[in-house]
Amino acid sequence: MRKLLLVVTCLFLMQASLSAHELNEQGRFGLGAVIGYPGLGLSLNGFVADDISIETNVMGRFYYVSGLHLDVDLLFWMHESDFRPLTVTWFVGPGASIMYVSAINRTYYGGAYYSGLLGGPKGSIGLALLFNDAPVDFSIKLSPGLLIGSNGIVPWAEFLLASRFYF
Q1: Range in 72-81, 105-114, 123-132 with the lowest mean pLDDT
Q2: Which of helix, strand or coil describes residue 84?
Q3: How far is CA 27 from CA 48, 55, 81, 110, 159, in A?
Q4: Topology (CATH level 3) of domain 2-166
Q5: What is the rounded CA–CA span in Å between residue 28 and residue 47?
Q6: Does residue 126 contact residue 154 with C-beta atoms inside 8 Å?
Q7: How far is CA 68 from CA 18, 42, 80, 99, in A?
Q8: Are the beta carbons of 163 and 136 closer than 8 angstroms?
Q9: In angstroms, how far is CA 58 from the centroid of its own chain?
């Protein structure tokens, strides 16, 4: 669990250094909002190459449990289709989630009361709409994975909608 926390922390710090380093290049760093399951929060996306980005989402959890959720994904942006005034593209990539939860009632984490730290690997696939005349995107993402905690390993899935403005 400590190794997972170290990996997620390193990826988050890479995102922070990327945003400061690439901020002056238009279209390379996006900042916006994310909503879906597991919550509502802030979305950051920074491109490290023309077709590779690191996406970080920091969310508050409100469904069944309360807490904080952080996920980091390395996304590979695939084929683009240009439909004026939109460009449609899709992305895939590996990632990791880590969260602190405070359960109110019985939860799906092993079917028992749980409060604490959970984390694990995940994969992401999504679709993005990019506006050709504005530095804005809208994306929809599904991320199945595994969560590891004191109750064992359980399957997990995120479903997120995000919108970001690119600087």
Answers
A1: 105-114
A2: coil
A3: 11, 14, 18, 42, 25
A4: Porin (2.40.160)
A5: 5
A6: no
A7: 23, 12, 34, 6
A8: yes
A9: 8
Amino acid identity of residue 108, one-letter, is: Y
In angstroms, how far is the first alpha carbon of the chain from the final one? 35
Question: What is the spatial distance between Cα 162 and Cα 140, in angstroms, rounded to a whole number?
Answer: 7
pLDDT digits (tens, 9 = 90+) for 144-154: 999 888 778 88
Burial class (CB in 10 A: 0-12, 13-18, 19+), 157: exposed
Cα–Cα nearest to 137, from 75, 95, 94, 93: 75
Q: Give a three-class secondary structure readout of 25-67.
A: CCCCEEEEEEEEECEEEEEEEEEEECCEEEEEEEEEECCCEEE
- Name the residue ranges covered by the structural domains of the chain: 2-166
